[in-house]
Amino acid sequence: xxxxxxxxxxxxxxxxxxxxxxxxxxxxxxxxxxxxxxxxxxxxxxxxxxxxxxxxxxxxxxxxxxxxxxxxxxxxxxxxxxxxxxxxxxxxxxxxxxxxxxxxxxxxxxxxxxxxxxxxxxxxxxxxxxxxxxxxxxxxxxxxxxxxxxxxxxxxxxxxxxxxxxxxxxxxxxxxxxxxxxxxxxxxxxxxxxxxxxx
Length: 199
Hints:
- This protein is of the alpha+beta class and 199 residues long.
- The chain contains 4 helices and 12 strands, in the order αβββββββαβββαβαβ.
- A hairpin with a 4-residue loop joins strand 4 and strand 5.
- It is elongated and about 115 Å long.
- It starts with a helix and ends in a 5-residue tail after the last strand.
- 19% of the residues are buried.
């Protein structure tokens, strides 16, 4: 009893496997039919590494170029491939038919001469690391005021409690604010005392 049943199952196995192969073939054919070509509806479009306007630019795609849309995202970006480049573009700049391209700066004679609907012109973008600038404190020289009495120097940070006899004082050199030049009388009138390092 077991042998005929086993023999019968072995006879059905090739039919089941061929059904799976046919099903896989149908899936591949349906994927090939759904390859979505779109066309750039702008004078040029930046291909980016990530779906963000601040992401690194990989290339510039000329207007009316055909791109293969691999995925359309709900955030307004499409993952596309053009030539050997793979990246993201804003979906709003893509149209489904090349004749729907309305950008005014397209050289249609060049498009037709370079492949018509298969036209795809891509240029590389020079990718440079962003330049980082280091902020340095501004050192301003004191502008002497016309006043009576010996000149003293005050760090104009709004918190100082002392005045200095020289700009070369070690405490004064640490001041990153403007230096106020005043007379001894004016400094004392502001409630300041002498610097213990200078005097």
